[in-house]
Amino acid sequence: MRIGAWTSAIIGSVGLLVIPFAALNIGTYSIDDQRVSGPHFLLHGYLEWLPFLALTIAIAYGYRTERKWARTLPIFFWLAVDCDLAWQVFAGDVAGNDVVAYGFFAVFYVSVALWYCWFKRSVELYYRALSDANSRVHQLSSDVAGA
């Protein structure tokens, strides 16, 4: 989970750095292999990536602060990637063998994320221990407040 938290934090941070650089037109930007200005990129190309960046930042934050809700976020992230890939297929941007590859990988990485987040024994034990610890803290605070 540490690798996922660090990877998510790095991807989210780099993605957020694009905003000021593009707004100030620092760097080169392209949409569909056509060079565009930074502000144009922010308005037309960057919006598609905002949900992905929000999920990576939420994953990093949730894992770092040991939130139970973070357990499902990688699955939502990969499902969002699947939606983007499906959009590319239905829009006609992808054809032939690439459609089969997209379908295979869409199922593969969602399956891996689902297995890791919900069925891997060490992760299951971690979240069970986290839940038990939170229950004990809540019970202790209730006992102190009631005394």
Count of extended strands: 2
Major sheet description:
2 strands, antiparallel
Cα radius of gyration in angstroms:
20 Å
The main sheet orders its strands as: 1-2
What is the count of distinct domains?
2
Helicity, as a percent range: over 70%
Q: What's the rounded overall pLDDT mean? A: 87
pLDDT < 50 stretches: none
Structural class: mainly alpha
Q: β content, as a range? A: under 5%
Order of helices and strands: HEEHHHHH
Number of helical elements: 6
Taking the alpha carbons of the first and last residues, their distance comes to 39 Å
Shape: flat
Explain what this protein looks like in three dimensions:
With 147 residues, the chain is mostly helical. The protein folds into two domains: 1-65, no CATH class; 67-147. The protein contains six helices and two strands; from the N terminus they run αββααααα. It has a two-stranded antiparallel ribbon. A hairpin with a 2-residue loop joins strand 1 (29-31) and strand 2 (34-36). It is flat.
